[in-house]
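Entry 14. Structure prediction run on the chain below.
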Amino acid sequence: MRVIYRFFILALTLLFVACNINNDVPFPIVLGQITEFEVEGECSADGGNINYSKIDNESRTVTLYVNDTVDLTNLRIVRVGIAGIPLNTDINYLENPIILPDETTCGEYENFPRHGFSDSIDVRMDFTRPVKFTLRTYQDYIWTVTIHRVVKRQIQVENQVGEAIIDPILCNAIVYVAPNQSLKRLKVHKFTLGGEHGRVSPDPTEEEASNFYDVRQFEVRTGWGDLQAWNVAVHKADSITNLESAVKSTVNAWSNFALIEASLSMASDRFKKTSLRIEWKKADDSDWDENSHVIEYYELTESGTDNIKATLKGLEPNTTYEYRLCYEDGDEEFIGSSITFTTEEQIPLYNGGFENWWVNGNVSYPNEQGFSYWDTSNPGSASFGGSNTVETINPVHGGGKAAKLESKYIVIKFAAASLYTGTFGQLIGTNGAKLNWGVPFTSRPTALKGYMQYAPKVINRVGKNLPADAPVEGELDQCTMYCALLSEALVVDNTNMNTFPDWENDPRVIAYGTLPAEQNVDSKGKWKRVNIPFVYRNLDKKPTHLLVVFSASKYGDYFHGGEGSTLYVDDFSFEYGDSPLVR
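Output returned:
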């Protein structure tokens, strides 16, 4: 009887424990991504007929442009494509994620197709402001869709001076003409205040000559249907004080300096005899800089337009400034309108001292745990024998740690140690891997600087299809370091060298820099300072991504190099100077 009782108590205990077991198996991570997004009236950023949509998986944003016939309050979505991308390649995720629109902008929220759709149904939403969409897999991912309406408003008249000043908010426009032009008989060539598809009543382009002696009012029907009342004034540029009306000025603000360009399209013969200068100040200051900047470049074109350039130096990052064009004519001084700009932020290089590391299994990562910025060749090499890019406490240049990159022969392949900004994609058998190059970055530094030690070994592993400049077997190995500012992230497959960008000509490359050849030598156990200038292909375009690459064997993508070649890197950072290098 006592045995039966004990057995009964044991059974109850086991039942209680079983009922209290928690399901702690985590859900797999499946990224929800928008692969297609098309709307009615889509066009390019400049209003052309080519559809343009930018889908950024990093920031989870979609940017679209539509022509001026589109009503953003009731815009038809033509096509939406979505996908679930598992981070773990072992997961076979066959279902599409669910897409949920912002309920406040979607008139028929309950009828919105939850798994994407094509143009077979009529789906409309209010896109006057950016719209949030939720993509639901095992997790929720918030995407933002922003739609810009391209409206080309222009006024062109005979003997016009400078560009027309058009204010679409207040519906006002001002046009300047030459001093000898009659305001009562003015020929109007272009008058698209309602955009290319809008209508103006009365239409002055249909008049043989228009009277603009007084301010005129026009009824404008936009291409998307709004009715607006516009006031248009035409003035003679007969006073030299109308400098601001004759100047078309642009400013390209970096973090420490600003590039100023201006075109003056009135009274050029007089400007040649005057002293032009640019004054500047912080927006919050009351006084303008006494040390006015001299114009660096002055050109008088055949058409009579004066082109000038200047560089404002010694600025502070992330600060708002004002500048203005001034000139003197004898005893008189004339001052143009001030123009405001804000300098860029100086974004630092994350973990450039390589102090932060964490280990997952036998794979080392040079980041704080859970943060993605740097990655290495370790996810590939660790599958066969362990990490070949690791932290080290000896030697170090500064702080307590540095990064050690050692090329090794692992099982059946030569594995060059590498370190780069981005993420490891996936292995391609034993022949290589796909890499996601680049991390979000919007500043424009002038150089990458830091410290290195390099101990190359004699090349004893020989690859195939090598470039002509690659060192041969028996010669010393070479390391590599380079950096690039990009207009988008890159995906490269090191089994297919055609996927690598042409650093000199690829339009996605805004700036590029590489380790000078004379520094690619044995450092004899000493730290050497490294300075890699960014060489800019375009001074106006701003980057979206940053790429920095280090490797102990320059031709490791070809499985070519010396076993034991070791590169140490430490204390890398960006320099923000006052004059970028230009190709």
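The two ends are 95 Å apart (CA to CA).
Filed with the rest of this week's runs.
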